[in-house]
Fold this protein.
Amino acid sequence: MKPLIGVDWGTSSLRVARIDSAGHAIEERSSQRGILTVETGQFPSVLEAACGDWLAQDPLVLVCGMAGSRQGWVEAAYAPCPAGFDDIASHLAWVEPGRVAIVPGLSCERDGVPDVMRGEETQVFGALELLSTGSATLVLPGTHSKWVHARDGRIMDFSTFMTGEIYALLRHQSILARTMPPQDDDTLDEAALRTGIEQAMQSGSLLSAAFSARTLALFDRLPAKAAASYLSGLVIGEELRSQKLDRSQEVIVVAQAQLAKRYALALQGLGVASRCVGSEASWRGLSAIARRIGENA
Amino acid sequence: MKPLIGVDWGTSSLRVARIDSAGHAIEERSSQRGILTVETGQFPSVLEAACGDWLAQDPLVLVCGMAGSRQGWVEAAYAPCPAGFDDIASHLAWVEPGRVAIVPGLSCERDGVPDVMRGEETQVFGALELLSTGSATLVLPGTHSKWVHARDGRIMDFSTFMTGEIYALLRHQSILARTMPPQDDDTLDEAALRTGIEQAMQSGSLLSAAFSARTLALFDRLPAKAAASYLSGLVIGEELRSQKLDRSQEVIVVAQAQLAKRYALALQGLGVASRCVGSEASWRGLSAIARRIGENA
């Protein structure tokens, strides 16, 4: 097999890694050259700038993330759910046959409404491999959190929550920002996070619960430096409330450590077990896809 | 009784009216001199500029709205719910005894969380008078919508929804803005509004439902010019979903005509009857308070 270079090319960042045959990153680099900063036709040269030294070794390059969107390098049509590793591997959009391919995102449909992901499918498959399981409920928190149901190695369906984006809007642009410190120095206050989660669980809607961040501050019951953690609890709690979580279940949290910790605390508060997987999930997922390509070749 | 001047002094606007003894506005003026534009100590001169000719006739001036907040003219402490006309009248903050008074806002507490309103209490009392009823469920839609329960002429409790503010953030600042026309030329598309409301009713959370405005656009199932109405339906629907509305109930919508129409359509879709009251509610409310002062004097 050729050496493998993994590329996680998102909206606002570009991460590249040399990946060994076991799916571990040997070397990793990242930059702010997300697809929004790259003009049409410039994707090859931006990748060359990021890891030209690696590309010289004639590797297989697998790209996941928004680079496969209409505004990206080459559009990779969504593969419909249910979808497994093999479906992904057979839907690759080859930029250079045998050398550079883009992993397709997934789509699903629920109650007449479509949903989409790009990049998270690779993390999910990687996380399942890392945990040696084929069936799990996973959450990939972020700007647009994804809740994913996998069974027998296939992603059955998923749903998107605009949790991170709405948090940021409320934190920085709404009336709630007026009673919070101006900087984004939002050290986690665990007690405030828990209070926010509890408040969200007993509230009927974030539209209403969010206002409590203001009134609690007005009545001196929420210190300014705890307010962002409380708000974080409100939005994470709202996301969890709308899942139908069973205490016998386990949720796999795929996220970097700080964000994963917030979700782990939230799930713990509901009596739901969780395990966390970090950024290694993407590399492991790309490695598993590369292996499938090798088997089919 | 002295002639009455009503002042509705909000965060971003100032409205003044000469009010007759039946509670009708004889003459109305408005400007953008909301309290955020007024420096401490400058409230009398800004009011003088707005209606000095009326003030020359030695009227009673009653002021409702954010002018009674800590950042306003004179702070009028919140009156706690349940509260009726008499409670409001006995909690007035007099700027000049017998001449200029500020109507206090209301506070209530629910599940350990305080809630507040300033200005809406006057509209509610005015609407109840206009409709000759003392008991009703009312909604005052806006940046921060208020749902109010009144019984026997008293406001029993209420809750705030950040519907208008979150709509504006999603409409203009979020990823959803990318698939909508840039201008704020959001002509109501009734069908899209209804679809949004239905989607919200069957969704568990706005965090998730909001993303459908993006995916429906991506899959060419939501025309760009209908997207803002759809989003409006999503947030109004979310607000209604978290009410426990009974089809035998009637909801009083207190709002200007365009916004009232959206709520009336939404309520109609749920089989809930509604009646609408406009800006005359504030003047009628201030008139009722003036009458109480007269009776107590």
Observations:
- The longest helix of chain A spans residues 224-241.
